[in-house]
Design brief:
By secondary structure, the protein is α/β, with parallel strands linked by helices. It contains eleven helices and 14 strands.
Length: 310
């Protein structure tokens, strides 16, 4: 076990930021840590890194108790914070060299690591640029390079793709997969649920300082009541028809989304067949109809009642 957090409590006067929070991270996995704004994700990370004192609980990293003076453990850890944290008066290469130098004393080895980090994030054409001359996506890449240049075994990535374009986002995600394939264990927080769904082996959903559930994508989807969603576009339909539609077996809820209706079914079989029978019986005309399995967003909404991007 790379990280083990047991009954972690962190208070800010009357506010309980972490309420007996628990987390385990296995070697070699990408763990997604998800939750609405203010749920305690960043606080949990800062406590694990001993950047914050906490009121109660135990934290072990690499099998040892984590303390502010655990420099032997911290050398194996990389942090990519949510806010871009680089020096504006240093060039791209000088920034990466500085942060790498905090862990790697050997000059030749540090030069090798810095060059490899620049290559990894594809900033070789920008080594002499100052951060203010970089686009948002390039700054994010620099932020990542500064956090991983010393080749850490455990990497914390806190919202690394916030406010970047689609091309930069895909580049960053591919880089995270590569880091994992090369042996790094990764703890990943994001507001983009589709990223977590594609990237993470296991996911923890937390809210109000507590971890609500943890498991693989499939395990999380199996615990919610929604088993299937059908999206139907009707050319014309009245409220009375919608009310009758709710009597179809296993229908939990019907939501209107623009010109479409999203019909949520609980566990059952023949959901689509039952809906088609209702449509034909009531001589309804539809413009589209397709079925969807539950998504991670459905899990999140059912457990927390909140949009992750709030």
């Amino acid at each position: 076990m790379i990280v083990k957090v047991n009954n972690l409590v962190k208070r800010y006067e009357e506010l309980i930021a972490l309420d007996h929070f628990n987390m385990e991270v296995e070697e070699g996995e990408i763990l997604g840590l998800l939750g609405p704004n203010g749920c305690g994700k960043t606080t949990a990370i800062n406590c694990i890194l001993s950047l914050l004192n906490f009121d109660k609980g135990e934290i072990e990293v690499f099998g040892k108790k984590m303390t502010p003076n655990s420099y032997d453990i911290k050398r194996k850890i990389g942090l990519v914070p949510q806010e871009v944290s680089v020096f504006e008066n240093l060039t791209v290469k000088e920034n990466i060299d500085y942060f790498c130098g905090l862990y790697i004393e050997d000059r030749d080895l540090r030069k090798q690591y810095v060059d490899e980090a620049i290559e990894f994030v594809d900033l070789k054409d920008y080594t002499k640029f100052y951060p203010k001359k970089l686009s948002g996506g390039l700054k994010r890449r620099l932020n990542i390079a500064c956090g991983i240049a010393h080749k850490p075994k455990l990497i914390f990535l806190d919202e690394p793709t916030v406010a970047v374009d689609a091309q930069s986002r895909n580049f960053i995600l591919d880089g995270i997969k590569k880091l994992n394939n090369e042996g790094s264990t990764i703890i990943y927080t994001t507001h983009y649920l589709e990223e977590a769904e594609k990237l993470c082996k296991r996911i923890i959903i937390m809210d109000k300082g507590r971890n609500l559930v943890s498991g693989t994508n499939e395990e999380l989807k199996s615990i919610i009541s929604t088993s299937e969603k059908v999206v139907v576009g009707f050319s014309e339909i009245g409220e009375e028809v919608v009310r009758k539609m709710k009597s179809i077996p296993h229908v939990m809820d019907i939501e209107k989304a623009g010109e479409d209706y999203i019909i949520k079914f609980e566990n059952g079989i023949n959901n689509l067949a039952n809906l088609m029978e209702f449509i034909h019986k009531n001589q309804l005309i539809y413009t589209k109809l397709h079925s969807q399995l539950p998504s991670l967003n459905d899990v999140f909404l059912e457990l927390t009642g909140k949009e992750l991007r709030d």
